[in-house]
Amino acid sequence: MIALPDQLFTSLETSGWAMSDAVIPVEWRHSLKEVSQTLFEAGQFHDALIGQHASRQKNTDIRGDSICWVDPHLPPYVTHPFFLFLADLRQTLNQTYFLGLRSEELHFARYGSGYGYKKHLDQHRNCPHRKISVVLYLNDDWGTDDGGELCLYEEGNAGLERVTRLLPTPGRFVMFRSDQIWHEVLPTRKTRWSLTGWFRDDQPIAG
Ligand SMILES: O=C(O)CCC(=O)C(=O)O
Ligand SMILES: [Fe+2]
C-alpha cells in the first residue's frame, strides 16, 4: 500500500473528490511533460471526440483538447514512477473500498488557448467501467489569470450545488469518482498540459 495522505481518501469518501499539491515529485512532472511535448511535436496528438462508438464526433464548442493515448504497459511508461504510483494507488483503492479496479486508461491532453471542456460526467451511461478519474497537471507555471480551471460540482444540502474551482498548477494531482462528479474545464488562456486517466473495473479498449 502506498503512503498517500489519509486526507486524500477521507476527501474522496466524503466529497467524491480529492486533491494534492504534494504527492507528485517535480521530476515526475518534468519527465512526463517532456514526453508529452515530444509526442505533440511528432504529430501524435489528435482532436478529442465526444460521444460514443459510431456517433463519436469533434465539437470544439464542447471539448477543445487534443489528446494522445498512452499504454501504461509499454516503455517509457512501464518503468516510470508515476505509472508505478498509479498501479499502487489502484491496489490501495481496491483494498480500501473493494472497487474491483483492474486497469488504467490514460491520455495526455493539450488545450490550446480559448478551449475548455463543458460540464460532463466521465462515466458513460452505456459503459459503466470508468470508476475513478485522475488528472495530473504538467504545466510549468500557472496563474489565476490563466483560466483553465477544473470546476468540480457537488450536490450539497437542499439540492444546492457546490462548485470548487481548481487551477491546473504544476504537479497538482486530482482524483474523483467518475460516476458522480460532474465537472468542467473552463476556457484556458494559455496552452494547458495534463495527463488524464481512469481506473476501470474491466480491461480498457483505448480509443
Ligand atoms: O483536465 C482536466 O482538468 C479534466 C479533463 C477531463 O475532464 C476529461 O478529460 O474528461
Ligand atoms: Fe472529464
Distinctive features:
207 residues, alpha+beta, Jelly Rolls, 4-stranded antiparallel β-sheet, 3 helices, 11 strands, binds 2-oxoglutaric acid, binds fe (ii) ion, ferrous iron binding, metal-binding
Mean pLDDT: 92
The CATH class is Mainly Beta
* Order of adjacent strands in the largest pleated sheet: 1-9-6-11-4-3-2
Parts with pLDDT < 50 across at least 5 consecutive residues: none
Gross morphology: globular
**Ligand inventory:** 2-oxoglutaric acid, fe (ii) ion
As a percent range, the share of strand residues is: 25-35%
Order of helices and strands: HEHEEHEEEEEEEE
What fraction, in percent, of the residue positions are helical? 10-25%
GO molecular function: ferrous iron binding; L-ascorbic acid binding; peptidyl-proline dioxygenase activity
Cofactor: L-ascorbate
Protein name: 2OG-Fe(II) oxygenase
Domain Fe2OG dioxygenase: 102-201
